[in-house]
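step=encode ok
step=design start
structure_in=
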């Protein structure tokens, strides 16, 4: 599992002074990119290769609210991986530090690499050149008990 602590900032708030719905998705996407960077595959490498993850579906389940400047612990785990590594399901859980309660689950649905001009690339994450460390990290995460194989 990969995790980072972020902050619910001013720009994340809605008119009720709670973290807005899309901010949960933004925090989840940030953690995904931080994970790839920590595995030696930073955003600059995605740009250089004209690849990028394409989120096909997001599902959010709400439990608690975040307020301005709350610390947000965001975890990321692999919930499923296709045999060829081209599709995966990523799960993010967001927790409030002040009471350790889970606030939101974001199920990242299907994520595929994309190309800036072609939409969705045929090549999968398993085929990323020059950076096998990210692939190994995903495979290792897929071996965790909560992970499953996707069709």
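sequence_out=
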């Amino acid at each position: 599992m990969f995790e980072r602590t972020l902050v619910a900032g001013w720009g994340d708030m809605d008119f009720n002074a709670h973290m807005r719905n899309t901010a949960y998705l933004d925090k989840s996407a940030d953690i995904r990119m931080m994970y790839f960077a920590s595995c030696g595959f930073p955003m600059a490498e995605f740009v250089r290769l004209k690849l990028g993850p394409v989120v096909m579906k997001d599902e959010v389940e709400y439990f608690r609210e975040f307020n301005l400047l709350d610390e947000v612990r965001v975890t990321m785990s692999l919930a499923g991986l296709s045999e060829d590594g081209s599709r995966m399901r990523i799960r993010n859980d967001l927790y409030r530090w002040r009471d350790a309660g889970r606030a939101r689950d974001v199920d990242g649905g299907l994520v595929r690499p994309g190309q800036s001009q072609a939409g969705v690339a045929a090549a999968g994450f398993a085929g990323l050149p020059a950076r096998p460390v990210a692939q190994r990290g995903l495979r290792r995460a897929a071996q965790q008990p909560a992970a499953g194989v996707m069709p």
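step=design ok
step=annotate ok -> The domain at 2-150 is CATH 3.10.129.10 (Thiol Ester Dehydrase; Chain A).
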